[in-house]
Design a protein that fits this description.
A: 277 residues, MetI-like fold, 12 helices, globular, B: 284 residues, mainly alpha, two-stranded antiparallel ribbon, 3% strand
C-alpha cells in the first residue's frame, strides 16, 4: 500500500517529467496557430489564433514530406524483406557463431547514425570512382542507407515474437496435411504478423525522423523533411514550418492509433522500443 | 530440417554483411590516409590523423565535452524516466496505456521538431524567460542555445522516451508481491524503496544507463542545433569537418574514434549484463 505522501511525490515527479517530455510538441502545435504578422510571429501562447500559416506552407516542404514518406515506406518494406527470413533462419537453426551473426544484424543500431552517414557517403564516392555510378543524392542511395538503419528494428521485434512461438501450431498444420510452404504462409507468417507490424512501425518512424544519416545523402532539391527542418532551424525560418511540423506530429499520432487498432499497444511495447535497441 | 532454415538466413546475411562491412571498411580505411584538404588524400597509410586528434587540445576538449554532456544527460534522463516507468508499471487502470501511448508518440516525433519547441520555450521573450523574470528569479533573459546545458536538455529529449520504455520493462520484472511481503514484515514505504525496489532495479539502471549514454554519445541533431556552433560534440564535429572543411579523412578519423568509444561502452554493458545475470539478478 502506498502512503499518501508517496502518492503526492510520485504524482508531482511524474507530472514534471511529462511536462518536460511533451512541452516542446505542445508549444510547436500551439505556436503554429499564431495569427499575427510575419516577423515576431513565433509566439507561445498564440495570440489571435488562426490557421493562416497552414495555407502558407510552401511547396518545397510538401515535396520534402513526400520524399520522406516514400523513402520511409519503401525502406521499411525492403527492411522487412531482409528481416523476416533473417529472423526465421536465425531463431530456427543452430550453428556455431550464431552470436556473431546476430551481432552483425544488430550492428547498425550500435553504430552512431552520423558515423553510418559519413561511411555511406565515402562508400558511394568509392563506387563512383570505380564505376561512375553516383548514389549520393539519389533515391536508391538514400534507400540503401535507410534500409541499413531500419532493418534491426524489424529484426529485433520478429526475433522476440519467434522466440515465444508455439511449435505445436506448425506440427498441427503439418499433421493435418499442410506442406512446408503452406505451413509457412498460412500458420507461421500470420502468427508473426504482429511483430512485423510493430517492428515495421518503429522502422518507419526511425527512417521518417532521421537527420544524421540523411544529411550526408541529400542533394539540392532532394531533401527529406527532417533535414529541411534542420537547415531551416540553423538558418532562418517563418511560421509555416511550425504548421508543417504540427502536421507531422498529428501524423505520428494517427500512425500510433492505427497500429494500436491493428495489433494493440501491448504488442508494440513488448516487442518494440525496449528490446529493439 | 535444420538446413532449410539456414538457407533462409544466407541471402539477408550476405546483404547485411555487405552493407555493414562495405561501408565501415571504406571510411575506416580512409581515415588512415593523410588529409590534403578539399577531399584529396595522400597515398600512404599513416596514423597522422589520429596523432592530430590525440595531440590537439581542441579535439580532446570536444571529446571530453561529449562524454560530460552524455553522462549528465543519461543521469537526468534516468531520474526523470524512472517515476513514470514505476507509476505506469504499478497502475491497474486503462490510464496506464494512455500514459504509455504519450511516451511512444514522443519517441516517434523527430528530434528536430522537439528542438524547435525547445528553442521557442527558451527564446528571449518565450514562456520560460518571461515567467522567471516576472517572478524575479532571473534579471535578464537566459538562453540555452550555444551552452552545454542546452545540449544536455536536448539530449534528454532525444533519449527520455526510450528510457521510460526501457525502465518500464525493468520495473515489470519486480513483482508487487515483493513489496507487500516487505511491508507485511514491517518495512516502511521508504524502506521498501531503499531495500527492495531500488536494489532490484539497479542492474536495469546500469545497463539502461549505458545504453542511453551510448545514444547520447552518437546524438547529432540536438547537439548540433542547441550547440549553435559554439559548443561542439564529436558527432557535430564529424559533420562540420565534412560539410564546411571538406576534410574527409579527418572526419573519418573522428568518426572512428567515436565508433570505437561506443563499441567499448557496448562491451562494458555486455559484460555487465553477463555478470548481473550470473548473479541471478535477471533483468530485461
Amino acid at each position: 500500500m502506498q502512503t499518501w505522501v508517496e502518492k503526492v511525490i510520485l504524482f508531482v515527479w511524474c507530472g514534471f517529467s511529462y511536462v518536460f517530455l511533451l512541452s516542446p510538441m505542445v508549444v510547436v502545435m500551439g505556436a503554429s496557430l499564431h495569427g499575427g504578422e510575419f516577423s515576431a510571429a513565433i509566439k507561445f501562447p498564440p495570440e489571435d489564433p488562426s490557421f493562416q500559416w497552414y495555407s502558407k506552407i510552401p511547396m518545397q516542404q510538401f515535396e520534402a514530406l513526400g520524399l520522406s514518406l516514400i523513402v520511409a515506406a519503401v525502406a521499411t518494406f525492403l527492411a522487412a524483406l531482409i528481416a523476416v527470413p533473417a529472423a526465421l533462419g536465425l531463431v530456427r537453426s543452430n550453428f556455431k557463431g550464431k552470436f556473431i551473426v546476430t551481432t552483425i544484424f544488430r550492428a547498425p543500431l550500435q553504430i552512431p547514425a552520423i558515423v553510418s552517414g559519413i561511411a555511406f557517403l565515402q562508400f558511394y564516392y568509392l563506387i563512383y570512382d570505380n564505376s561512375s555510378l553516383m548514389l549520393a543524392g539519389t533515391i536508391p542511395g538514400m534507400l540503401i542507407g535507410h534500409v541499413f538503419i531500419a532493418t534491426p528494428f524489424l529484426f529485433g521485434t520478429i526475433v522476440a515474437v519467434l522466440q515465444r512461438f508455439d511449435h505445436r501450431l506448425e506440427e498441427a498444420a503439418h499433421s493435418l496435411g499442410a506442406g512446408k510452404w503452406r505451413t509457412l504462409y498460412r500458420v507461421t507468417i500470420p502468427t508473426i504478423m504482429p511483430g512485423i507490424y510493430s517492428g515495421g512501425l518503429y522502422a518507419f518512424m526511425v527512417s521518417f525522423a532521421d537527420v544524421p544519416m540523411s544529411i550526408f545523402l541529400t542533394a539540392p532539391g532532394f531533401v527529406t523533411y527532417p533535414v529541411e527542418l534542420f537547415y531551416a532551424l540553423e538558418n532562418d525560418f517563418d511560421p509555416s514550418i511550425l504548421a508543417s511540423s504540427s502536421l507531422v506530429i498529428i501524423f505520428c499520432l494517427i500512425m500510433l492509433l492505427g497500429v494500436q487498432k491493428m495489433v494493440g499497444l501491448e504488442t508494440l511495447l513488448r516487442s518494440g522500443g525496449g528490446s529493439a535497441r | 530440417m535444420e538446413n532449410r532454415w539456414i538457407a533462409y538466413l544466407i541471402p539477408p546475411f550476405i546483404v547485411t554483411l555487405l552493407l555493414v562491412a562495405g561501408s565501415q571498411f571504406v571510411f575506416i580505411q580512409n581515415s588512415f590516409y593523410q588529409d590534403l584538404g578539399l577531399g584529396r588524400t595522400g597515398t600512404d597509410l599513416t596514423l597522422v590523423n589520429y596523432l592530430n586528434f590525440f595531440t590537439d587540445s581542441f579535439y580532446l576538449k570536444t571529446f571530453w565535452i561529449t562524454i560530460k554532456v552524455s553522462a549528465l544527460a543519461s543521469l537526468f534522463t534516468l531520474f526523470l524516466g524512472f517515476p513514470i516507468a514505476y507509476v505506469i508499471a504499478r497502475m491497474k487502470s486503462r490510464l496506464a496505456m494512455l500514459l504509455l501511448a504519450g511516451i511512444v508518440v514522443s519517441t516517434f516525433v523527430t528530434i528536430v521538431i522537439k528542438v524547435f519547441g525547445l528553442i521557442i520555450i527558451f527564446s528571449a521573450d518565450g514562456v520560460l524567460n518571461t515567467t522567471l523574470m516576472n517572478l524575479g528569479l532571473i534579471d535578464r533573459a537566459y538562453s540555452i542555445i550555444g551552452t552545454q546545458e542546452g545540449i544536455v536538455v536536448g539530449l534528454m529529449h532525444f533519449t527520455i522516451g526510450f528510457s521510460v520504455l526501457l525502465l518500464y520493462s525493468v520495473v515489470v520484472t519486480v513483482p508487487p508481491s515483493l513489496e507487500y511481503a516487505a511491508q507485511i514484515h514491517g518495512a516502511s514505504r521508504w524502506r521498501v524503496y531503499q531495500r527492495v525496489i531500488i536494489p532490484l532495479c539497479t542492474p536495469g539502471f546500469v545497463v539502461g544507463g549505458l545504453m542511453i549514454f551510448n545514444m547520447c554519445m552518437g546524438a547529432f541533431t540536438s547537439a548540433a542545433l542547441l550547440g549553435g556552433g559554439r559548443v561542439l560534440t564529436l558527432p557535430v564535429l564529424v559533420q562540420r569537418t565534412v560539410m564546411m572543411e571538406v576534410k574527409y579523412s579527418t572526419a573519418a578519423s573522428i568518426a572512428f574514434v567515436l565508433l570505437v568509444s561506443v563499441i567499448l561502452i557496448n562491451l562494458i554493458s555486455l559484460i555487465a549484463i553477463r555478470r548481473l545475470r550470473s548473479a541471478r539478478l535477471v533483468i530485461a
